Amino acid sequence: MKWLAVDYGDARTGLAGCDASETITSPITPQIEEKSMNKVAAAVVQVAAARGAEGIVCGLPKNMDGTEGSRAAKSRRFAQRLANAAGCPVVLWDERRTTVSAAAILADNDTFGQKRKERLDSVSAAVILESFLNWRSHHPGEEPPEQLVPQPPEDSKVSQ
C-alpha cells in the first residue's frame, strides 16, 4: 500500500512517500511552504493524489514525557482538516525525536545550511513514515492506534 507521511509545521511542511510494498521511503521535495492550514491540507491532498497514495500518516509532536502540548493540539487540528479534505482517515503517529534523527541523516550526508533547511522537514516525514511502516510490519492486519476520520461540514449536521 502506498502511504504519504506529513510533518506539519508553521512555516514548512515536509512530505515523504513509500512504494507499494512499503519497503522504500523517500522524502518529497520541494517542501510545502504555506502557512494556511487549509492551503497546506489542499497541497497535501494534491500530492497524495498525484502519487497514488492510499493512506496518509501525520506526525504528532508529543512532549518527551508523552504528554501533548499546544503543538500537538495544532497538529491534531491540521490532521482533521486533512482527513476532511482527503476524504479518508489520517493516522496520527508519534514524531518524537524525528527532527533530531533527520538532522543526523542530513549531517551524515554533508547536507548543511540552506540545503538542510530545504530538506529537513521532508526527511523528518520519511523518518515518521519509516517508524509507522515498521509498526505495520510487526502488527499485520491491526488498525493503527489512532486515526482521525473525515467529519461532515458543520453546516451539514442536522440538529435533532
Automatic annotation (TrEMBL):
Residues 1-102 form the YqgF/RNase H-like domain. InterPro entries: RNaseH-like_sf (IPR012337), YqgF (IPR005227), YqgF/RNaseH-like_dom (IPR006641), YqgF/RNaseH-like_dom_sf (IPR037027). GO terms for molecular function: hydrolase activity, acting on ester bonds; nuclease activity. One of its GO terms (cellular component) is cytosol. It is an enzyme of class 3 (hydrolase). GO terms for biological process: rRNA 5'-end processing. Its EC number is 3.1.-.-. Keywords: Cytoplasm, Hydrolase, Nuclease, Ribosome biogenesis. SUPFAM superfamilies: Ribonuclease H-like. Residues 136-160 are annotated as: Disordered. The keyword Hydrolase applies. It is found in: Cytoplasm. Signal peptide: none annotated. NCBIfam families: RNAse_H_YqgF (TIGR00250). Belongs to the YqgF HJR family. Could be a nuclease involved in processing of the 5'-end of pre-16S rRNA. PANTHER family: POLYNUCLEOTIDYL TRANSFERASE, RIBONUCLEASE H-LIKE SUPERFAMILY PROTEIN. This is Putative pre-16S rRNA nuclease.
